[in-house]
Amino acid sequence: MPTWRPTMMCVHMPDADEHAEIRDRASNDPFCGRVGIELAAIGEGHAETTLTVDEDHLNFHGTPHGGVVYTLADAAFAAASNSHGDAAYALETNISYLAAADVGDTLRAVAEETHLGGRTAAYEVVVSDDSGDRIATFRGRVYKPGR
Length: 147
What we know:
The protein is of the alpha+beta class. Helix content is 20%, strand content 36%.
């Protein structure tokens, strides 16, 4: 069975609660650290990640690359789906891009559990900009073999 690796970076997060372990594990993710993703909040079936858009995140159109927005949403999805303490493995994901952000905007991805049953769970992640305008909607399902 594969070893689970979280997909986000945590910075300045208190670890004196039941989510300390996932915060610890997530803080060592080199990819999200390189991209600049931070874990803003985590709770049972819920997580929030943030990213401030800079010039390195832009595509040839001058807008944030879709992969950056996807990675931000995926990081929130990973944290939320693993927040119950049992390993969760992605089965499928999809994203709908709705608008572009600007350099300097801080994007926030908020993941919410929409279904938890048996060995699968489903999540919706809303990515929004500083004004609260929706940039993208991400949906994902996970498999939880330990349940």
